[in-house]
Amino acid sequence: MMHETSKTIALRPHHGLCLHFFIGLGYSERFVQRMTWLQKELERNPLIELVSGTDVLCDACPNTQGESCSDEKRFSAYDAALLKMTALQTGRVICWQQFKERMQERVFDEGRFHEICPDCQWHEFCHK
Ligand code: SF4
């Protein structure tokens, strides 16, 4: 499925990390296709809006029920941890490159990635 490209891409904050580590694995074929599509879109450095709740990726995730995630509490905690670490807020519009640099400086360079999502099922693939 092709996803409509809007000017600003809605992204829940912790998905910035997932995209950083993405190697073609995911919850379903449709989800992997969406991740692949989004990775490509982000190469042109669009504006992203940091959102709470579901985003452009969740729309293709089998864990999404209607408008919400079946494990919202856990993923909201990941979002909150990343926002705190990067000193960003929900609703902030920022270009992808800037967001990536902020994650690099304040999360990866500081060795703090493991604090954000240690109980995620994909952690062993991302925590390298
Ligand atoms: S461990 Fe899970 S939440 Fe964390 S970056 Fe990897 S896929 Fe995303």
Would you write up a description of this structure?
By secondary structure, the chain is of the alpha+beta class. The chain has one domain. Helix content is 41%, strand content 12%. The protein contains five helices and five strands. It has helices spanning 15-21, 29-42, 72-86, 96-108, 123-126; strands at 8-11, 47-50, 64-65, 68-69, 93-95. The strands form two sheets. It has a three-stranded mixed sheet with strand order 1-2-5. The model has no long low-confidence stretch (mean pLDDT 91). Bound molecules: iron/sulfur cluster. Iron/sulfur cluster (SF4) binds next to helix 1 and helix 5. Iron/sulfur cluster binds at residues 14, 17-18, 21, 78, 117, 120, 122-123, 126.
